[in-house]
Amino acid sequence: MIDKLKGVDLKGRAETRQEYREGAQWIKESPNYKILKITTPEAAAHYALNTKWCTSNPKTAKKYLKEGPLYIIFKKQPDGKLKKLYQYTYDYSQFMDILDVSVRPGKEVQRLIKPPLNSKLEILTGFCAFVGSRWPEAEPIIAEDPEEAYYYVRNTLRERFLEAEPIIAKYPKWAYFYARDVLKRPWPEAELYIAKDPEKAYYYARCILKKRFLEAEPYIAKDPQWACYYAQDILEHPWPEAEPIIVQNLAWACRYAQNVLKRPWPEAEPLIAQSPGWACFYAKDVLGHPWPEAEPTIAQDLGYWAIYTQHFKIEG
What we know:
Helix content: 40-55%
Distance between the termini: 81 Å
Number of strands: 5
Strand content: 5-15%
Largest sheet: 5 strands, antiparallel
Low-confidence stretches: none
Radius of gyration: 30 Å
Number of helices: 20
Structural class: alpha+beta
Shape: flat
């Protein structure tokens, strides 16, 4: 009656309550707890009332829900009412009490929130990382995915995952991370695959082998960025075999001249002189003196021309 006298739109309020029902569903229950699945920002904001959860803001809740559902755990009270206790994300990456403090609940709640084995892999590995213990029944499934197998090792096992190694080894990114973070030594069985990825081959040579990675050099030499870094940090001298590729990329050609050759690179100058920005950079940081042949190009860009003339104190 008060709402009616105030002119509150009761129909609109009823529709809002319906939205909360549509965006919230009871999915699990134990003797002492119930779990509510949240799928809409409006429901998330409603059930975050009287908590410190940032999902009380529908816009923030929407960002979370793009990744997957949210879940709220209630504790059953003697009088039949329910008390909000925790909210967690679909992959268990956040598990918060009502003060928005990260917590790890007791065994009953852990059993209640345990996902089925046919869940997405990130859910299985997320649960294991959250409870801090391995899940043998899930390991054959996790072992088939190099990314999730790596995260399972890093966050839960913290030791070798032998069953997953044949799969991990075939994927350069995860093979490199596995060698770096788990084995902490070279991994010969994976080198054939790592070698074919210029970026990971460079890091493997630099951080794990700490020397040349000969099998990878034909692949690294085809990528101007990683060829430049490889020459600079691994070879520590010019790399003629890679120069025909490096010279095709003005950014890396300039950096190669500056950091590897440490002198002008005449073969690259006709190309560099065609770019106002890189011609300005080359003159300042490689040549160390004005570059008259490139000045008509640099002058086409007022910003770079100002930098160039100010640096070399050229008037006009």
